[in-house]
Amino acid sequence: MRVMVTGGAGYIGSVMVGMLMDAGCDVLVVDNLSRGHENAVPGVALDRIDIEDLADLRESCLEFKPEVCMHFAGSSLVEESVRDPLKYLHGNLVGGLNLLRALADSGCDRLIFSSSCSIFGIPEAVPITEETPAHPINPYGLSKLLFENVLSECAARDGVRFVSLRYFNAAGAFIEKDLGEDHEPETHLIPRVINAALGKAPEVVIYGTDYPTPDGTCIRDYVHVVDLCQAHLLAMEHLAGGGESRFFNLGTEKGYSVREVVDSVARVSGKKFLVLEAERRPGDPPILVSSSRKIVLELGWKPRFDDLDRVVGTAYEWHSEHPDGYLPG
Fold first, then answer.
1. Extended beta strands in 169-313, E state
2. Does the annotation mark 167 as catalytic?
3. Do 77 and 125 share a structural domain?
4. Are residues 82 and 28 part of one domain?
5. Which pairs count as long-range contacts for 25-31, CB under 8 Å and 24+ apart, including other chains?
6. pTM flag (> 0.85)
7. What's the domain range around 21?
């Protein structure tokens, strides 16, 4: 299978590339390396392209002629999207539109989209199903929802078939391939807490302690990155077999609060570190927990990492061995 992976040098994308290579696929990574790392995809064909550049993207697609595209590229920081909504609404939507056009020109009509639970905003009930109304409360979530709508239109009119996977909180490391999470700046909770435990940060800050949750902090569903990428492989098989377009939620159906994550890192690391409290950040829903029943029933997805300490343990192992992340060169 010839697979184009946009954003393939990023955290989730690089794990996906590793798993695709293990599956015997012919892989092309398309990444502008603004947040990705070339060292995360050694020995893999890489086109350093920004998907907002239609001409370069079309040339890459015409040359590689992918059979399917996995689309991870885009901006993904909720807080930044609140400060700079046009960056997210323009970049994530225009980049996606360019990709669809370039793929169509190369004859590729299959796409697996990296969507987000952020499309749901503040749900009326949890766990969140695929039928839960989508009411995003930040521009990042809105950009994902808008592109999902574009995909639906293309499926109805142009014969495109897609699977949109709505991630909850990706976490952990792919230890077998020595791949982990390396962002600058780091905004994800688990690596931020690990940085404090390793002494790389002076403290970890909990944003908001007055949410309507048992301990007052936000609750999230943490899905291991390897389990998440396994769902992409199943989605690829689904489309290759002639399957119709689908939307799937991806989570563990278990929610953990910010304080519980902090406690988990303390248990796994055996370290003590400073924990501070601050005001809420704009755009953060109180509770996001997935129902993954649909993808389990339809594609047979079965997460291996269903315990928070196991997820944190893989992340802590990788960060301990890579205190400076992916070194350049």
1. 169-171, 204-207, 219-220, 222-224, 246-250, 256-257, 275-278, 287-288
2. no
3. yes
4. yes
5. 25/1, 26/1, 26/2, 27/3, 28/2, 28/3, 28/4, 28/60, 28/64, 28/66, 29/5, 30/4, 30/5, 30/6, 30/57, 30/60, 30/73, 31/6, 31/7, 31/73
6. yes
7. 2-171+222-250
Is residue 164 domain-shared with residue 309, that is, in the same domain? no
Structure confidence by residue, pLDDT tens digits, 116-173: 999 999 999 999 999 999 999 999 999 999 999 999 999 998 889 999 999 999 999 9
CATH of the domain at 137: 3.40.50.720
Query: Could you identify the residue written with the tokens 């989730």?
Result: 12
Q: What are the Cα distances from residue 175, in Å, to 18, 19, 182, 194, 286?
A: 11, 12, 14, 16, 31
Half-sphere CA count of 241, side-chain side, radius 13 A: 9
Indicate whether 101 and 235 sit together in one domain: yes
Same domain? 114 vs 200 = no
Phi-psi region of 219 (alpha: psi -120 to 50; beta: other; left: phi over 0): beta
Classify residue 252 as exposed, middle or buried by CB count within 10 Å of its CB (0-12, 13-18, 19+): buried
The first and second tokens of residue 308, run together, are 């928070």
Which run of H or of E encompasses 69?
A: strand 68-71
Question: Token pair for residue 123?
Answer: 């749900």
**Coil, strand or helix: which one is 249?**
strand
Question: Hunting for tokens 């690990």 — which residue is that?
Answer: 194
Task: Indicate whether 234 and 309 sit together in one domain.
Answer: no
Residue 317's identity, in one-letter code, is E
Model confidence band, residue 184 (pLDDT cutoffs 50, 70, 90): confident
Task: State whether 6 and 91 are in the same domain.
Answer: yes
Q: Write the DSSP string, 140-183.
A: HHHHHHHHHHHHHHHHHHH--EEEEEEE-EEE--BGGGTB----
Q: pLDDT tens for residues 230-288?
A: 999 999 999 999 999 999 999 999 999 999 999 999 999 999 999 999 999 887 889 99
Q: Considering its fold, how many domains does the chain have in total?
A: 2
Distance in angstroms (rounded) separating the CA atoms of residues 235 and 257 = 30
Q: Point out the catalytic residue in the list 140, 167, 222, 316.
A: 140
